[in-house]
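Progress report, Aim 2. The chain analyzed during this reporting quarter is listed below.
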Amino acid sequence: MHILHDEIGPPQLKIEKESNTAATLTVNPLPSGYGVTLGNALRRVLLSSLPGTAVTAMKIPGISHEYTTIDGVKETVFDITLNLRQLRLKKHSKEPEVVKVPFLKKGKVTAKDLKVSSDIEILDPSQEIMTCDGANSKKSLEIRVEKGVGYRLVTNEDSAKEEDAEMILIDANFSPVSLVKYDVQPSRVGEQINLDKLVLQLETDGSLAADGAIKLAAGIVESYFALFNKDDAYTDEDYTTSFDLLKKQKESKEKAAEQAQETSFTPIDILGLSQRTLNALVNGGITSVEQLLSTPMSQLTQLRGFGQKAKSELDQVLAERGYTVAPESSKPASDDSAQ
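Predicted structure tokens for the chain:
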């Protein structure tokens, strides 16, 4: 990790789930340029490398190619293949499964008419497949459902290997991610003004939760980058660090600050002030000598019950012990005095 985080602290990761299928990831702050580096890597993996389900082939008896029509069906074979590519399904096992769609009704045939096993979930039952003019028990549509990764483009070699001549192969997009985009915004921490803030928006088809998709993609990226630095890992202590080390350093600083605060608390009672003056200070929230010495006299005189007599007493007590209260803060000259 970049040594810059020693100064600005580790980046904060936040994933907001808008729904099970939509989420927004925010990472801030990042060194300049790292927003694009991380955002582009995550986007490419999200679109290309996550497992999903798609229809890879279809079969209608008597039909050998997609550039034809079917008696009793409004859509062409090509239109049906396009509709099949839009089906939102989730398959649990890797083995392909053939699903039948009988021509047993007049009207629209949708995803809910698919005769699937328990291994397949239909995520959008309303998705249209075709429109029939009437029932025909002699015909049926068979589709092959597979689980895979990325985008599979049908080639001539694939068609030649297919044993069933009537099986029409379909280009398949297995990715469960329907939308992913990222934006790199300017960020600032203290005097560091050239930092990045990564905002990534993601939507899935429902077969994989949006936050789960982000974590899976990040794990894939991490596993590949680990190949370059797995054995005999190289580090440069002057310019690199780790999130674990930063976390431990932060916890150590916070613990030291708490201990310092506990040890630096001196009860105000030891000054031996009169009860009236002591009550005025305590009621004003000043309970330790450290608080008293860091408060300007102008603020002390505004406390209820702290008058001129209390001020004189306090000046005397502090002078005897060698203490002085905080000096007054300087104020800019007014317009009248400047003239």
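Residues 330-339 have pLDDT under 50 and may be disordered. The longest strand covers residues 136-149. These observations will guide the mutagenesis work planned for the next reporting period.
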